[in-house]
């Protein structure tokens, strides 16, 4: 009878860990890019009016095509930053951003830096200079962090259940 109680207690414990509502799934995390801008030019601070990100397979970007907007895949900008999310990026990229001074500036060709890439874009008088930033979080995707946390929870749960079983058996022997 005690074994049944312990088993029911274990099931109740694991039931408490399960989500209470249903969850819809997607194809998993998607690579992303974040662009922060710094101004090299003197004068009034510039803001972003609009922008495009071109995807390229060639290192010189001679085959450039804008990143298509498909479901969550897109490139967007607000007044001070830009970002992109995609099902998968090409190896090479180029930005074309229109600023509040009426000029449209094009960037150098740059490569994908990681799963969640972070870039600093320097606004110069006639063009843009894109440089990657190193970030340990961007090199270890969110899925890895979630899996690591789940593994830790499973180990902690297993140790807790083992301790409970040990203490119950010890008490029964005494």
Using only C-alpha atoms, the radius of gyration works out to: 25 Å
Instruction: Order the strands across the largest sheet as they lie in space.
Output: 4-5-1-9-10
Largest sheet: 5 strands, mixed
Terminal residue distance: 18 Å
Q: How many H/I helices?
A: 3
Q: Give the total of domains.
A: 2
The share of residues in helices is 25-40%
- Mean pLDDT across all amino acids: 83
User: From N to C, what is the helix and strand string?
Assistant: HEEEEEEEEEEHH
> What fraction of residues sit in β-strands?
25-35%
Structural class call reads alpha+beta
Give start-end ranges of low-pLDDT stretches. Answer: none
The CATH class of the largest domain, by name, is Mainly Beta
Shape: elongated
CATH topology of the largest domain: Immunoglobulin-like
CATH architecture group name of the largest domain: Sandwich
Which secondary structure elements does this structure contain, and how are they paired or packed?
Blueprint (H helix, E strand, L loop, with lengths): L1 H16 L14 E8 L8 E9 L8 E2 L7 E4 L3 E5 L6 E8 L4 E3 L3 E2 L4 E8 L4 E6 L2 H4 L2 H32 L1
Parallel strand pairs: 1-9
Antiparallel strand pairs: 1-5, 2-3, 2-6, 4-5, 6-7, 6-8, 9-10
Which key features would you list for this structure?
single chain, about 170 residues, alpha+beta, Immunoglobulin-like, 2 domains, five-stranded mixed β-sheet, five-stranded antiparallel β-sheet, 3 helices, about 30% helix, elongated
3D architecture notes:
By secondary structure, the chain is of the alpha+beta class. The protein has two domains: 108 residues, Immunoglobulin-like (Sandwich); 34 residues. Helices cover 30% and strands 32% of the residues. The chain contains three helices and ten strands. It is elongated and about 85 Å long. The mean pLDDT is 83.
């Amino acid at each position: 009878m005690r074994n049944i109680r312990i088993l029911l207690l274990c099931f109740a414990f694991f039931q408490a860990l399960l989500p209470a509502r249903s969850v819809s799934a997607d194809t998993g995390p998607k690579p992303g890019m974040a662009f922060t801008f710094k101004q090299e030019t003197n004068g009034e601070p510039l803001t972003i009016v609009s922008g495009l990100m071109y995807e390229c397979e060639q290192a010189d970007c001679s085959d450039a095509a804008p990143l298509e907007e498909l479901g969550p895949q897109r490139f967007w900008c607000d007044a001070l930053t830009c970002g992109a999310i995609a099902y998968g990026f090409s190896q090479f990229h180029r930005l074309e951003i229109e600023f509040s001074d009426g000029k449209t500036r094009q960037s150098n060709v740059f490569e994908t830096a990681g799963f969640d890439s972070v870039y600093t874009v320097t606004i110069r008088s006639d063009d843009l200079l894109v440089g990657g930033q190193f970030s340990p979080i961007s090199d270890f995707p969110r899925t890895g962090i979630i899996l690591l946390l789940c593994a830790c929870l499973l180990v902690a749960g297993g140790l807790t259940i083992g301790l409970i079983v040990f203490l119950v058996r010890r008490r029964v022997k005494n």
